[in-house]
Please model this.
Amino acid sequence: MKWISKVTSFLLTIIFLVVTFMVYRLNLVPIKYFLPIVGILLFTILLLDFKLLRTKTKLFSRIFFNIIAVFIIIILGYGITYLNATYHFMNNLLSSEYEIKNYVVVVNKNQSYSQISDLNQKEMAYLKTDEYYKKVSSKIKKDIQYQEVKKDNIISLVNSFTDEKIPSIVLEREYYNLLREEYQDLEDTKVIKTYKLLVKKKLKKSTKKEDEPFILYISGIDTYGNINSVSRSDVNIVSVIQPKEEKILLVSIPRDYYVQLHGTTGTKDKLTHAGIYGIDMSILTINDLLDIDIDYYLRMNFSTLTKSIDLVGGIDVYSDTAFTSYTNKNITFQQGINHMNGEQALAFARERYAYTTGDRHRGQNQQAIITAIIKKLASVKNITKYKSILESLDGTFETSMSYEELTNLFKLQINKNIDWKIESISLDGVGSRRPTYSMGSRNLYVMIPSDESIKLAKQKITEYQKKGM
Model:
C-alpha cells in the first residue's frame, strides 16, 4: 500500500505544478485571485502528501487519503484539458501578419477548358490596377505559358469573354464573386484553378497603455472559409472603449455607405467593398471618413459564428416586424420574440429588404444576434459544453491585439466585474444608385452619407477619447 501512496503523491505533485504553470501561462486570472488559489491548492497538496507518506498513517486512513488524492488528480486533469483548450483558442484569436488572397483563373462554361493546362499558349486577361498581379502571374507561369492581356478597367475585363473572345481572366476570388452578382456576362463562367497568395498586412501596431481609451474596429464578414481571407465586410462598427469611465461607444456604419476608398481618387465605393482589398483598406477608409486612428481590429466570420447557436440550443431574439427572409424563403419571423437556430439567425442577420431603413436596420439585427449569442454562451448550463463551444468558435474570430493586451482586458473585467455602460449611434444617409470604384460604371445601390451624422459621430468619439485622460 505504501508504494501506491508514493505514486499517488508523486502524480498529485506533478499535476499541481502543471496546472499552476498553465494558469500562469494563460494569464487570465488576476494576481489577487491567482495567489490565494495557488496557496490553498498548495496547502491541500502538501497536507495530502504528508498524510500519504507518513509512516504512522493507519491503513484505513491511507486508503481514504488515496481516494481523496485520486479524486483531486482527476479534477485537476480534467481542468488541464479546459485550460489547454482556452489557451489554444486565445492564441488562435491573434491575427496573422499575413492575409490570404485567393486568385482564380476563370473560363467560360461553354468552352472545353477544364484544367489550367488547357490554357497553355492562350490569352489571359487581367486588371492593370491589381497590385498583386505580378505575384500571381509568377505562380501561373509555373503551370503554363500564356499571353498577358492588360485591361484598364473592370468593364473591359468583364467584356473580355464576349467582345474579344479571350478564353480566360484572372482576378481575386472575392472580387470575382462580387462581379458575378452584378454582371450577366459572368454567370456562365467557372473557376478552373485557384492560386493562394500570402500578403503582408501594412497596419502598424498600436502602443496603447492598459488604462487608456482605445478604438476597436469590429468587422463582420459574411462568408465561409478562412478568417484570414479577404472578404467583403457586412458589419462595420467602430468601438471606443474607455476603461477608466467603464463606458463603450458603438458607432455603426452601414455596409453600403458611399465613401472614398483610401488611396483612390474619382469614383467612390461602398464601404463593404473595401474588404475585398484587405482589412487594411477597410480600416484606413474608416480612418479617413471619421478622422480617427483605429488602434485594433476584431474580425468575425458571421456565417461560422452561427454554428455555436445550434450547439447551445438556439437563441431568443426580438423582431419588431413580421417578415419572410429574402435570402431563404422557407424562413419566416413573427413580430416579437423568435427562437432561432443557426440558419434562422443568419437569415435574420442578413435581412434588409423587409425594412424601410434597409441596411441600418440590418445592423441593428446583427447587434441583437451578437448580444443574444453572448448571453446564451454565458449561461451557467452551457458550462458543460465549454470545450465544444470553443471548438465551434475556433477560426471564427481574429484580432490585432497582442495576447497580453487581450488578457489584460479579461483580467480588468474579472477584477472589477464591470457593468459596461454602452452607448450606440449609427451613421445615417440617403439611399441612391451610383457607379462604384470596384464595379465600374454600372449603377449600384449605395447610401449617400449624412454630413450631420458623421459630424455627431466625430464629436462623440472625441468626447470618449478624452474621458479619463
